[in-house]
Specification:
The chain has 2 domains: about 80 residues, Rossmann fold, CATH 3.40.50; about 130 residues, Rossmann fold (3-Layer(aba) Sandwich). Helix content is about 40%, strand content about 15%. The relative contact order is 0.17. Bound molecules: guanine.
Length: about 300
Amino acid sequence: MATILSGTELAQKIRNEMKEELAELKKKHNLVPSLAVILVGDDPGSISYVKGKEKACAEVGIDARKYKFDADYPEGDLHKLISDLNNDPEVNGILVQLPLPSHINEEKILYAIDPEKDVDGFHPINVGRLMIGAPGYVPGTPHGIQQMLVRNGIDIAGKHVVIVGRSNIVGKPLALLLIQKKKDANATVTICHTGTKNMGDITRLADILVVAAGRPHTVNADMVRTGAVVIDVGVNRIEDATKKSGYRLIGDVDFEEVSARASAISPVPGGVGPMTITMLLHNVITAAKRQAGID
Ligand code: GUN
């Protein structure tokens, strides 16, 4: 039976470390990092993610300011708000929850955020910094996956990491992060996607298999080498009449059968999700320190 890589427990441990660091920052520099969170519309997933982010900020001592608008909020007003937040020295980080309603050009909005306040790491400047290994802001999910491996004593250097999914927020940045010639990286990375033929032939080569396809049952036991480490990034809502909410969350991996074959596996929920939010907090703290000139 595989070791369960609990993101909930690890996230709590890292957040406890952050609480101490933030208490110290407040005492020594009178600094309380602040994050502006913008939510447009009423997508249930987004509402729940934003709640989780606000709660996590409150827990460690980050000042989260929420800006919530109806789905028909004008694009021009959103640009004006981002410009105001870019120029507000009291705001260290800006996060626009995605997806945005279809009348708003998401790319233009992400480009409008000051790269030094882009704590999601989605601005092309930060994507470029990650590409060349320069300091910037790494997106929360890839960074959280790296931390989950490292802090569980799973060596990444020299390993073959196979990533299923080529999204701009998980697959591509994770590949860029793990191929770097740096500590906690230096892996051989392969990316599979919807155009990949015979995917099982490739996933079976993985020492570490990361599944971020956004589709349930993407990976079954046949596709996993015995002893591999499996990280499940999927968050899929499926109907479940036995739950009060009417749904439950499952990942992209067939957990039961794969956990019988893997050496370690992250669960859904309680795996990568809490780590993503924790690395967002890390970026907000980093932004506040950089903007205050504190090393
Ligand atoms: N939507 C899904 N994941 C994310 C994320 O990491 N950040 C933001 N802003 N929106 C998302």
